[in-house]
Amino acid sequence: MIKQSIKFLVCVCAICILSTSCKDDKKANIAPTEISFQKEGELQLYKAKTDSIVKTLNIEIADTEYDRETGLMYRSSMEDTNAMLFIFPDEEPRGFYMKNTQFALDIIYIGANKTIVTIARNAKPMDETTVLSHKPAMYVLEVNAGLADAWQLKEGDSIAFTK
Questions:
Q1: For the chain, what is the largest distance between any 2 Cα atoms, rounded to a whole number of angstroms?
Q2: pTM
Q3: pLDDT digits (tens, 9 = 90+) for 26-41
Q4: Which terminus, N or C, of the chain has the lesser number of Cβ atoms within 10 Å?
Q5: The Cα angle at residue 115 between residues 129 and 43, in degrees rounded to 5
Q6: What is the mean pLDDT of residues 66-81?
Q7: What is the DSSP string of the chain?
């Protein structure tokens, strides 16, 4: 009777070990899913002096706490015609960082009046250093690094967008 009980316990332990190791193997084989761009609106960038449109972009909107916290994390790239627009409920000094963001960005801080107040150029991928706005912002636009210079954006230029 004792030998049968020991054999039973050994079998139960073996099953537990095997089922646990199988679960671990399954986890190791799961590939992360690439998050794809979801067009939720369009945004126009305007020059301050001429009021002419510099560029029209497809935008993905981050207007919930979760979306604002996640942003462009866990994505490997973004087309130059796309951008992410963060919308906050109020205007205040903002700070962003590039944790888990795999490609360089220009971070454009925009006031409640939709005028650019700060442009942080070439934020480094995976960097947890906070990139601050110089003035209060209600919106933040993230575009691929180098585009703010290519479009000759300056503080005082403005945006308009539709959802």
A1: 94
A2: 0.81
A3: 445 665 677 899 999 9
A4: N
A5: 90
A6: 96
A7: -HHHHHHHHHHHHHHHHHHHHHHHHHHHHPPPPPPPP---EEEEEE-TTT--EEEEEEEEEE-SHHHHHHTTTT-S---TTEEEEEEEEEEE--EE--TT--S-EEEEEE-TTSBEEEEEEEEPTT--S-EE-SS-EEEEEEEETTHHHHTT--TT-EEEEE-
